[in-house]
Amino acid sequence: MTVDAPVAFDPLEEGFVASPYEQYARLRAHDPVHWSPLVDGWVLTRFDDVAAVLRDPTVSVELRHARPTPTVERQRERQARTGRSPDTLVLRDEPDHGRLRRLVQAPFGPRPVEALRRTVEQRVAAAIAALASRGSADLIAEFAYPLPVAVFNDVLGLPDEDAEQVREWIRAVTRVLDPVIDDAEHERCRALMDEMYEHLGEVIEAKRRHPADDLLTALVTAEDAGDRLSRDELVAQVVTLYVAGHEPTMSLIGNGLLALLRQPDQLALLRARPDLLRNAVDELARFDGPNQFVRRIATRPMVLGGREVAPGDVLYACVGAANRDPARWDDPDRVRVDRPDAAQHVQFGAGIHRCLGMHLARLQAEVALGALVGLDDLRLDGEPEWNERMVIRGLRRLPIAFRAR
What we know:
alpha+beta
């Protein structure tokens, strides 16, 4: 991989959308703790620095700790315009984070999620059957997006929704994570988020009046030592879970299958060794996972890569770059579905903010990819189309073909 081009973080650079990893490599090689005037923060691209920041309990997720910069002030103004406080656990430090996590984490542990395997398998089998007779499909629109929507609605006990409306809401929530979007787009996304909050608030109130045997009822009634979620906290957690249960899982399936199609030796190995599926999911998450950046704020003086980081500085921990760091990974720009240390990636974060839904995402990706690689004569059927997001990377369209059954 070449590293002689200019060194700067620039998500608008030509080719970045299709593959940001060449830019990450330049930064990692020449300026791994890089001050970016574009985002008014430090962009970290080495595995050791990213992992250290994610695991450091003194590093904050709350924007109130950031020193004023044009980017921070713009983000604060936009947050104020929503009229909502950041009640989700992913934007709270201790002790608030721990309190919220204790109230919602029980259904997302390894054992409760494994109990959902049969539900996921049934959903996947039905989706594959619907595709199998046709011989071609857009994997994203016809499989990778509808699958996590259906599974999550099953788990939460949500009614079937207008899929396109739900997808528009989720796109809006994930898009506002990017610090480089303009005010007009942010306002459009904010209006869609308002619709989503209102809709889910109504669903929650209906569940409160008519409880059922499902996750949403469990969250409504969740209690820990006499503590319960307020209405605003409950809606915020459901929005977070709803989005986290859709977009990253869709991208993990889509990005993962594309990587396998581009490395047919690994696709063949996975077909021959289905016992490698679980490890393959971790390797594909390492290689080209959806979560590319995590924002943190320093609360104390730090030294990273010889650079002095001041309290209040914003840190953009680039997990996409960390997971391709040749100082940590052997042959990092190749997929190896039997990679022995694949699970050591930081795609799902680390420390107290490690992704709550990672077990459910892994399960869905494992079952989905296992079914997809079983399609005969599976191949690309056109050029993939990527979204244009900096934080959550994924495909907008992935045309595939296969032998019809």
